[in-house]
Design brief:
alpha+beta, 4 strands, globular
């Protein structure tokens, strides 16, 4: 289950997939689900780590807050851990 929530953690929408499906391809789908809102940040766990997902969040005007995998090639020097 891929869950979209508001900043307080209240559910807005979800995308139900099989357990064998990867997380990353469903991130753009989650951005488009639910009411017409303009998110300020798009948060996800390391399963959503991809350049395409970060670009999808930026296209919607949201700051991507997705940790980089330890095996990643290029990681930024700054990550907003407080969020």
């Amino acid at each position: 289950m891929h869950l979209k929530t508001d900043f307080d953690g209240h559910p807005i929408a979800f995308d139900l997939t099989g357990g064998e499906k990867g997380d990353a391809p469903h991130f753009p789908i989650l951005l488009g689900l639910g009411p017409d809102v303009d998110p300020r940040a798009a948060m996800g766990d390391k399963g959503y780590d991809s350049k395409a997902n970060r670009q999808a969040a930026r296209r919607r005007g949201a700051v991507p807050v997705i940790p980089y995998r330890s095996t990643g090639i290029s990681k930024p020097t700054f990550f907003p851990k407080a969020l």
